[in-house]
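General statements about sequence and structure are easier to judge against a single worked case. In the encoding step, the backbone of a single protein was reduced to a row of integers, each denoting a local shape. The record that follows shows the chain in one-letter code together with its fold in token form.
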Amino acid sequence: MNEHRRPLMDRTLPLLTGGYAWLPDRMRESSDRVVRTRLLGRPALAVRGPQAVRFFYDEAHVRRHGAIPGPVLDTLFGQGAVHTLDARAHRTRKELFLPLLAPARVAGLTEQVTAAWDDAVRTWGERERVVLFDEAGVVLTRGVCRWAGLPAGTGTQPLARDLVAMVDGFATPGPRHFRARRARHRQEARLARLVQDVRSGTVTAPADSVLDRVSRHRDTRDEPLDPRTAAVELLNVLRPTAAVSWFVAFAAHALHRWPAHRERLRAGDGAFATAFAHEVRRFYPFAPFLGGRTVRDLTWHGESVPAGGLLLLDVYGQNHDEELWGDPYAFRPQRFLDRPPGPDELIPQGGGDPRTGHRCPGEPITIGLLESLATRLARLDYQVPDQDLTIPLRRVPTRPRSGFAITGVRAP
């Protein structure tokens, strides 16, 4: 019997155990970079490449409503989040986030985070050991809360722990997942009360701040978001910013493994800082793939998936595709000095147009923060003690096992 005519076995369990390597391993068995499989009981088609990115983000092919599994909504995105909407409803909700793309806004957040970083660094020299992953989460949370207009006195460390837990537990069963659920429930309830206080006038949100915009936003029926959904979308600004702690730990890992890059960052080479940020996001694993529900029967390179099935975009595989990157497992920021990445080539935070589609609108924020914090890391004097710096590909999302600990910190 022809291979693609065989009944498809459900591969959800192999995915959970295989992690980042599961889909790329299957792709290597295909000459056309397309894989038919079954996940969560549904037929699925996995694709890769710039043309596949455009195919995946075509709203005539894929919808997000009903595509994101409940466990991911209950941890990472939140029920009713912008990620679950399509067409006009998606575009209307996304208007809440698009002003955050303005260069002045990105610069404002970067200033708040770097100020929080500089304050934190002054205390690190007094400590025997600093775990960069943990400290970055607190610094990023403190900075984004100030920038978003949250009231002073917001408990930064508990909030940072919860934001990091939401990301850390979205793709795994077991204790990490249940910690993520509890964290989301706790913060949604707290921020929903804050939104209600803003609307009642008990709390004043700075004009046009994120808190102000979320509290005032109206959806397609010209009604304000219910407080819980408003809290979900407020978390969808705070949580991705805290998630940059993964990239900070990866940047430290890269500077440790390839210290020659440190000098150009120290010198303030802005173009190199941008290239370094792109290469960290390309080289190190974060999202393994993205998925959507098929609107109609689809065919890609001779393989098909019926309406109501799943279309998967192989993010990790594309970011390590030899045809796109030449030597994909070499960490080489210079590749992005030669030319900027095409919008459908480098996709660690999705592809397509962030203004109209589902590409993460916070991508410029991630890049701006990573440029600044990687430069500060390069200028920081510290030692790297013996520790487990392996990055397990079976763990999603992964990071250096030790969180990247440093000692003997001396601020510049």
User: Anything to note?
Assistant: The first helix runs from residue 12 to 18. Residues 218 and 224 are 4 Å apart (CA to CA). The radius of gyration is 21 Å. The longest strand covers residues 34-39.
